[in-house]
Amino acid sequence: MGDTRSEKGRLSKRALKAALAVPEFLAKRRPGPRILIYHQVGTNLGREMEVATETFANQIRYLEAEGSIVSLDNAVSRMGTPGDDRLFVLTFDDGYSDMYENAFPLLAEHGIPFTLYITTLPMQDASVSKPGTLPLTWEQLEEMFDSGLATVGAHTHSHPDLRFLSTDAVAAELDESNALIGDRLGVQPRHFAYPKGWWSAGAETEVRKRYATAVLGEGPPNRRGTDHYRLHRVAVQKSDGMRFFKRKLATGLVLEDRLRRIVRSYHGPPAVDP
Ligand SMILES: [Zn+2]
């Protein structure tokens, strides 16, 4: 049976994107490496945070034709250099087993690097996962890490809204996650993703003590001088299709970003306009 409500939601989201995309037609290509956010691949749950396996394969093909898919470290070290807008970084948030099942085989076959931001509590106790989703197992994570393609970053232990936690509680979330990942992989994570892009100055102080970079949600381009602890990403959504996927990568759908900031879904640090 079709889910009319979510179908309507998708349609209106498409309509909004179409409306916003019209003035984008003449928008300038944004500078900087594109750090893409993926969550789930090929689960067929109909959520915005998921893409079909075939769509994912098409997107990878497009990215490889347009530029290079590189590791996060590589992209950050080349940020602000000529041609950095043709560097693409694949990041997968939370750590879902469908990523291992449906995305990793393709990435392994093509030798494509990627970054995983792992939430460790569901990996310890799968019963806390959302219905219809399964976390990665530690064995799956180890296999991907051992392939040499995966950068394993942290995404807290229990995915809380860090804006409302005490400094001690933030530190505990980060330390627990780092300890578990360190135990299994033998190395501490050097990269961090804020759950849902929920940023706060207090949390950032703790993040800076433990990691080399941190990523947020969508926002302004990553250019020369962008703080490595405030890297913005481009969210890949089910309703994008290839058309908006390409458009987002070219211009960043600047208006959509601005709207997001105004409406509700931007939780990052205040804008620093150049
Ligand atoms: Zn997350």
Secondary-structure map with pairings?
Blueprint: H1 4-24, E1 34-38, E2 40-41, E3 50-51, H2 53-66, E4 68-69, H3 72-77, E5 87-94, H4 97-110, E6 114-118, H5 120-124, H6 138-146, E7 150-154, H7 167-185, E8 191-193, H8 201-210, E9 213-215, E10 234-235, H9 241-251, H10 254-263
Parallel strand pairs: 1-5, 1-10, 2-3, 4-5, 5-6, 6-7, 8-9
The protein binds zinc ion.
Notes on the structure:
The structure is a single chain. The chain is an alpha/beta fold and 274 residues long. It has one domain (4-238, 254-263): Glycoside hydrolase/deacetylase (TIM Barrel), CATH 3.20.20. It has helices spanning 4-24, 53-66, 72-77, 97-110, 120-124, 138-146, 167-185, 201-210, 241-251, 254-263, and strands at residues 34-38, 40-41, 50-51, 68-69, 87-94, 114-118, 150-154, 191-193, 213-215, 234-235. The strands form three sheets. Strands 1, 4, 5, 6, 7 and 10 form a six-stranded parallel sheet that branches. It has a two-stranded parallel ribbon with strand order 2-3. Strand 8 (191-193), helix 8 (201-210) and strand 9 (213-215) form a beta-alpha-beta unit. Helix 7 (167-185) runs parallel beside helix 8 (201-210). It is globular, with a radius of gyration of 18 Å. Residues 93-94, 155, 159, 195-196 line the site of zinc ion.
